[in-house]
Amino acid sequence: MRLSRAAVLAQAKAAALDGVRRLNCCANLLFLSLPAQISICRDLPNIEVITFSVNGISDLEPLHQCQNLSELYLRKNNITSLDELFYLKALPRLRVLWLAENPCCGPDPHHYRMTVLRNLPSLQKLDNQAVTEEELSQALVDGVEITAPPARRSVENGWSESTASSAAGATTEPRSELLSCSLEEINKTQEELDMKLVPRDKYSSFPPQETDCSCKKRNNVLNAILLLMKELDAEGLEIIQQTVARRLQAFQKKELQEE
């Protein structure tokens, strides 16, 4: 499924695609169908911050035209090869990249980090960790330079063979697992968006009678609400506050009646 023009404009609250500066589609239900298609990014010339964490993205080619992109969050997707960095090398303003928890990271964290920094030496932060001058120097020795895009042998209906095989591999992980948001997942997402983390003692455990499915559903809803609150202005937050207060009063009244 592709991220549509209408969905982008609605999320970014923009009148036209060239007016979109920030796009947050973290754990987005638009990407339940794998592989996630982000071809719309070719039409976002002024985009500066993109959050696509926790989706099914495997192809970064559409991003190479986002020349104003400075922050890119791709944590926990289905990017299988570091060759996809080839498309990010064309982005002169990219300073922040979060790529952790993708298959391309592999079993060797040092090799992964050195390869990313060798190809993207302008990064100031990688996977929420500041990049040092020493690392950039070491990357010239330990990192692998990427000089060509990933091979895609055939394309039909928007699917390449390499992408299709990546999606097939991803099916070993249930979709509910791909989008399930535990407390740690919620906190990572909030950290990306500079939001206050949820204290563990404030995040109550689920009653024993609830199934795993309902737990995941509640976590997903909570994560979505926290993300959307980032987009609200003062008036919107006041409406949320009033609605929450009424809901809490209703729950308290119900509990008193049951007692």
UniProtKB/TrEMBL annotation:
Question: Do you know which Pfam families this protein is assigned to?
Answer: LRR_4 (PF12799)
> Which intervals hold domain U2A'/phosphoprotein 32 family A C-terminal?
109-127
Q: Has keyword Signal? A: no
Key words of the record: Leucine-rich repeat, Repeat
Signal sequence, start to end: none
Enumerate composition-biased segments (Low complexity).
160-173
InterPro entries hit by this protein: Leu-rich_rpt, Leu-rich_rpt_4, LRR_dom_sf, U2A'_phosphoprotein32A_C
Name the source's superkingdom. Answer: Eukaryota
> Which GO terms fall under biological process for this protein?
cytoskeleton organization
Q: Where is this region: Disordered?
A: 153-176
GO cellular component terms, alphabetically, are: ciliary basal body; photoreceptor cell cilium
Quaternary arrangement and interactors, per the entry? Found in a complex with CFAP410, NEK1 and SPATA7. Interacts with NEK1.
Q: Which PANTHER family match?
A: CILIA- AND FLAGELLA-ASSOCIATED PROTEIN 410-RELATED, LEUCINE RICH REPEAT PROTEIN
- What function does this protein fulfil? Plays a role in cilia formation and/or maintenance. Plays a role in the regulation of cell morphology and cytoskeletal organization. Involved in DNA damage repair.
Q: What is this protein called?
A: Cilia- and flagella-associated protein 410
